[in-house]
Write a structure and sequence with these properties.
Blueprint (H helix, E strand, L loop, with lengths): L7 H14 L7 H15 L5 E8 L2 E7 L2 H13 L3 H8 L3 E3 L12 H6 L4 E10 L4 E9 L7 H55 L3 H15 L3 H11 L6
Helix pairs in contact: 1-2, 1-6, 2-6, 6-7, 6-8, 7-8
């Protein structure tokens, strides 16, 4: 049963007020997600642990966790490819397990959850970007059965927009950073290849295309990237041995 001494309305209001007062410009998205998880742990009943899951094109990741219970159960679901947090993330439906010991929807997951001491759970979907197939869930793993009532479900739902914004922004930032890193690598590769072509053109009186073909043939012969062949030539003045 839900904890009769638990006052979700008061504690949730205080927690949401704290979240609302945070400066997003001064707080990293990782820190905001961890704060959401920690506050959910504090507010929700059943002596819980909490986590935030992000699912990008079918690939799930835990972005924040308050403890081993949440991390272990997230990872168990990722290994099996199903479970309450993945269901919430995929369908956009609030997903609750009232008593893990009698749950039949995910028979390969729930016995492990019971062994870890999780007797009920609540996964609140995070609406991030349906078109890009990016979803998520705020997961609350309680150590007591039937831990959640209407007030606690509403409290959990109150945290979801904060987690969704933070998770979406973190993904966008990481994607932009990855694109920038890849662009930088591409630019560096192009520069060293151009240098190597210039060496070959000067040394052997080749055209630019002929010089690149020399690099390409060496790359195929050695089973290494053209950039690596070019880098060796620029650094040592020598082509890799045939």
């Amino acid at each position: 049963m839900a904890d009769s001494s638990y006052d979700s309305s008061a504690t949730a209001a205080e927690a949401l007020e704290r979240l609302g007062s945070l400066s997003l410009r001064e707080l990293s998205m990782e820190s905001l997600l961890q704060t959401v998880a920690e506050l959910a742990k504090t507010v929700m009943p059943g002596r819980p642990e909490a986590s935030v899951t992000l699912v990008v094109k079918g690939k799930p990741t835990t972005l924040a966790s308050t403890g081993e219970l949440a991390t272990a159960l997230d990872e168990r679901q990722y290994e099996r490819g199903y479970g309450p947090c993945l269901h919430a993330a995929d369908t956009g439906e609030l997903t609750e397990i009232a008593d893990t010991r009698g749950e039949t929807r995910w028979p390969d997951y729930t016995p492990a959850a019971v062994r870890h001491g999780n007797l009920s759970s609540l996964s609140i979907p995070l609406l991030i970007d349906e078109d890009e197939r990016i979803g998520g869930a705020l997961n609350v793993y309680a150590r007591e059965p039937h831990a959640f009532d209407d007030r606690s479900r509403a409290a959990g739902a109150g945290f979801a927009p904060y987690a969704a914004v933070a998770a979406g922004n973190l993904y966008a930032y990481q994607s932009a950073r990855t694109m920038a890193d890849n662009l930088q690598i591409a630019l560096e590769s192009r520069a060293v290849i151009d240098q190597a072509k210039g060496i070959l053109m000067e040394r052997h009186k080749l055209t630019a295309d002929q010089a690149f073909q020399v690099l390409a043939r060496a790359s195929m012969a050695q089973n290494v990237k053209v950039r690596d062949v070019a880098d060796q030539l620029v650094r040592t003045g020598e082509m890799p041995p045939p």
